[in-house]
Specification:
Length: 577
């Protein structure tokens, strides 16, 4: 008989601890550097409090759910160990290559149980950390008591509570599934053990049967909660004709889901009772099949029949109340229910236009199509191939004594369009750092050549109405095409705009960016930016130089305020400063 055990266990255990500590130290150092850089970026914009609030919330969520996951799983594994210690975890002899080998499953189970619990805790903790917004909103919710017309729940439930319930139910279901799998495996392993007496064998079978049944019942109860929660999102589901709950859903499908949830709870009760009394496998199969059968009937067949043979022949009559819900709640959502309605007799004649009194409106009817204007601007205003007009937007400015519709386009620098011989680190990071200026033209005027009537144009920027509209800071360091990181306030002069065969240069005069400081901070920034081979060793970069990161304006605002929803089409403005 060969007894397999760890050779020199103290040395191996010490080596494992050293490797684990080294990996943990590397992870902590890398994570700390990333946190430090992010804190510097937020602080450079005056929003360090935002970063640290988000950081604390994420860290707290991670620690809480990682700890809860480890405690729940390790406790469950401890109960499993105690339950099956006399059978599945006892020492046993197996034959390998015609030799008897004694193994000790109990010795292996405990470290594996800890490893599984800790790994699961880290995974679930990191996963739940990503849901910090839902948890923060739930903890800081405001009163929103207006009830919805279907479930009669307050709006605050859908805005703040429901997302948290969904996250928690998903987490608990996954934990219960892990416990169920572990219990079933041990029950099977226990049933393969031969006992001295028939009574002992029967006791093991009952123990395994009961443990697996209770684990399955817990999983089913959590599944019932999950099914019950799936009803609520139908309030904002889109359909072909309108959004929201339909006649079939309100009267058949959603009640059917409620019945399914109740049936799942009933199945869990049947399984528990069966474990304590009959212990028949057919009762488990029947209990699990019951909610499946109920869903097929109440969640599929009946709603399909009603939709095809009751709703379709008289769709408008059946759906009218639910279409009205959609209209009324849309009006409330946009505040249209507060608009005062008045009768207005339309006059279709030319006199009804009242041209003299509505001359400002008529003079501002837009004639320029934005896509055609952009093509024109790219031909006559890009000047160089590395400039680009990505979009054209419409705004209003005071011009000629009245408010006029203007069309603006931003002349951004696209470093990917620089000539290949100019694609050097110095050019891309130190010299070509910004775009230059905007074009502004009236929305409905043309020159005799068919070109836009420019108010702002060219490089350097020229204004046809300098007393009313003047651009004093044309450099564009942050935009929609600024996707690279650059270093400013260096010894290199920054390219401003082409001027014949030469170039106009400037130095960044803003207050933004992160000061590079000494060698330690510069090295950390270089590591964060993936620029370790150049930045720490550049003579052009000084301690007073600054790095401009996250220059794409969408990335910037989403990082600063991730809890807001932003317009998909940002636009530039020209102000007095």
């Amino acid at each position: 008989v060969i007894d397999i055990g760890p050779s020199n266990p103290k040395r191996r255990r010490k080596l494992i601890w050293i490797i684990a500590a080294a990996l943990a130290l590397i992870f902590i150092l890398l994570r700390s550097a990333s946190i430090y850089i992010s804190a510097l970026w937020f602080d450079s914009l005056g929003y360090s409090s935002v970063y640290w609030y988000i950081f604390r919330t994420k860290l707290l969520v991670f620690l809480i759910f990682a700890a809860l996951t480890i405690i729940i799983l390790r406790t469950a594994f401890w109960i499993i160990e105690r339950t099956f210690s006399a059978s599945a975890l006892e020492r046993r002899t197996v034959v390998i290559n015609n030799q008897s080998v004694t193994i000790n499953p109990g010795r292996l189970f405990r470290p594996v149980a800890w490893a599984v619990a800790i790994i699961a805790g880290l995974i679930f903790g990191l996963s739940m950390k990503d849901h910090w917004r839902e948890l923060a909103l739930y903890l800081n919710q405001t009163a929103a008591t207006t009830p919805d017309p279907i479930f009669n729940k307050p709006l605050g439930f859908y805005l703040f509570s429901l997302p948290v319930h969904q996250v928690l139910s998903r987490w608990l279901i996954m934990l219960s599934l892990i416990i169920l799998i572990a219990t079933v495996l041990f029950a099977i392993l226990s049933s393969t053990q031969k006992q001295a007496t028939k009574a002992a064998t029967e006791t093991l079978r009952r123990t395994g049967y009961a443990a697996a049944s209770f684990s399955l019942a817990a999983f089913l109860i959590l599944l019932a909660w999950r099914v019950y929660l799936t009803r609520y999102p139908y309030l904002w589901q889109d359909h072909q004709s309108f959004s929201g709950v339909t006649y079939t859903e309100a009267n058949y499908y959603l009640p059917g889901l409620t019945i399914v949830a109740i049936t799942i709870v009933l199945a869990a009760v049947i399984i528990v009772i069966n474990a304590l009394t009959k212990r028949k496998l057919r009762f488990i199969v029947g209990a699990v099949a019951l909610p499946v059968l109920v869903y097929v009937v109440a969640g599929m067949l009946i709603p399909a029949y009603v939709q095809s043979f009751v709703v379709k022949p008289n769709e408008l009559g059946r759906e009218t109340p639910y279409i009205e819900h959609n209209i009324n709640w849309t009006r409330k959502g946009f505040g249209l229910d507060r608009i005062e309605m008045r009768e207005f007799e339309a006059d279709p004649s030319i006199a009804g236009l009242n041209i003299q009194n509505n001359r400002p409106t008529l003079d501002n009817i837009r004639l320029w199509d934005w896509s055609a204007l952009r093509d024109t601007l790219r031909q006559i205003q890009e000047i160089r191939t590395y400039y680009d007009f990505g979009d054209v937007d419409v705004d209003r400015y005071k011009f000629g004594g009245q408010t006029r519709q203007m069309m603006l386009a931003t002349r951004e620098l696209d470093v990917s369009k620089l000539p290949e011989q100019s694609r050097t680190w110095i050019n891309e990071r130190l010299i070509y750092t910004h775009g230059y200026g905007v074009t502004m033209n009236t929305a409905n005027e043309f020159t005799p050549e068919g070109l836009p009537r420019f108010i702002l144009s060219n490089m350097p920027v020229q204004s046809s109405a300098p007393d009313e509209i003047k651009l004093t800071r044309p450099e564009i360091y942050f935009g929609q095409k600024t996707t690279t990181d650059v270093y400013v306030k260096t010894k290199q002069q920054e390219f401003n705009f082409p001027q014949g065969e030469t170039a106009s240069s400037n130095v960044y005069e803003g207050t933004g960016g992160i000061p590079l400081g000494g060698f330690f901070r510069r090295t950390l920034l270089a590591w964060s930016l993936g620029d370790l081979s150049k930045l720490p060793f550049s003579d052009d970069v000084t301690s007073e130089s600054r790095v401009l990161m996250r220059r794409n304006i969408k990335d910037r605002v989403e990082a600063l305020a991730p809890y807001l929803v932003y317009d998909s089409d940002p636009y530039i403005i020209v102000t007095q400063d």
